[in-house]
């Protein structure tokens, strides 16, 4: 990257949204600088200045211009570095629309259902798992066939991880650690074999392995989030 060109990702180590951007830049081989933001004490000269609307990470600052919202940032990366590294989206407009549809479903439906799982215990956890599995069945029946059915590779983007793969990994890439901590099965290989094999390929990709925080950190965060959520719901 030349002296006149700068690219800075403002993130937070545990943010799945920030990880999406980190993964996209690494897949495309685009060098960037990383700045860790303190979300408990938001920095007025970085985060609050660059994302005054949502005040959230990630923010990608390209040559001084901030871009917020992880999916908007992924599209920006793809358009700006179109010929740099692998394409994250296909050329065909209909295919692109299909991938955006599933990225949106995973980002909203699966993300929301998986957050409920992390925050619940007892009967509420059983219900949350059931709801998440129902949504995974929708992905299995309608999405996997559409996204991975052509047999061109282990990912929705073929041989390399692309737009919808990044979103799927950011939402469920740590599911095995979640299963261990919660003592429940989240992904049922018999019920949703396509989803299980897709996630398996994503988890074993060298770049995702590199980006996922250490198991100890993920476990610590999960226990902290659960403890806060469960003690505030008990107090309510
Ligand atoms: N829709 C946003 C979500 C970003 C988001 O929720 N970021 C969290 C960290 S995981 C955050 O910055 N939270 C700070 C806050 O809510 O005050 C995106 O896709 O980028």
UniProtKB/TrEMBL annotation:
This is Glutathione S-transferase. Belongs to the GST superfamily. Tau family. It catalyses: RX + glutathione = an S-substituted glutathione + a halide anion + H(+). Its main location: cytoplasm. Is involved in the conjugation of reduced glutathione to a wide number of exogenous and endogenous hydrophobic electrophiles. GO terms for molecular function: glutathione transferase activity. The keyword Membrane does not apply. InterPro entries: Glutathione-S-Trfase_C-like (IPR010987), Glutathione-S-Trfase_C_sf (IPR036282), Glutathione_S-Trfase (IPR040079), Glutathione_S-Trfase_N (IPR004045), GST_C_Tau (IPR045074), Omega/Tau-like (IPR045073), Thioredoxin-like_sf (IPR036249). Pfam families: GST_N. It comes from the Eukaryota. GO terms for cellular component: cytosol. Transmembrane segments: none annotated. Its EC number is 2.5.1.18. Keywords: Cytoplasm, Detoxification, Transferase. CDD domains: GST_C_Tau (cd03185), GST_N_Tau (cd03058). Residues 92-221 form the GST C-terminal domain. SUPFAM superfamilies: GST C-terminal domain-like, Thioredoxin-like. Residues 5-85 form the GST N-terminal domain. It is found in: Cytoplasm, Cytosol. GO terms for biological process: glutathione metabolic process; toxin catabolic process.
């Amino acid at each position: 990257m030349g002296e006149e060109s700068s690219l800075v990702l403002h993130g937070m180590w545990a943010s799945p949204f920030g990880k999406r951007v980190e993964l996209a830049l690494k897949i495309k081989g685009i060098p960037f600088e990383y700045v860790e933001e303190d979300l408990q004490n938001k920095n007025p000269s970085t985060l609050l200045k660059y994302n005054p609307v949502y005040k959230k990470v990630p923010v990608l600052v390209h040559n001084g211009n901030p871009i917020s919202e992880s999916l908007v940032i992924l599209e920006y990366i793809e358009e700006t570095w179109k010929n740099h590294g692998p394409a994250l989206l296909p050329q065909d407009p209909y295919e692109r629309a299909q991938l955006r549809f599933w990225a949106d479903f995973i980002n909203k439906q699966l993300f929301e259902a998986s957050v409920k799982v992390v925050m619940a215990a007892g009967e509420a956890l059983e219900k949350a798992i059931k709801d998440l599995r129902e949504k995974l069945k929708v992905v299995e029946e309608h999405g996997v066939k559409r996204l991975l059915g052509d047999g061109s590779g282990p990912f929705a983007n073929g041989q390399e991880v692309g737009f919808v793969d990044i979103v799927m990994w950011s939402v469920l890439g740590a599911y095995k650690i979640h299963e261990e901590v919660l003592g429940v099965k989240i992904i049922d290989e018999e019920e949703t074999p396509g989803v299980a094999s897709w996630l398996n390929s994503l988890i074993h990709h060298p770049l995702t392995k590199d980006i996922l925080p250490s198991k100890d950190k993920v476990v610590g965060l999960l226990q902290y989030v659960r403890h806060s959520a469960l003690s505030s719901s008990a107090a309510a």
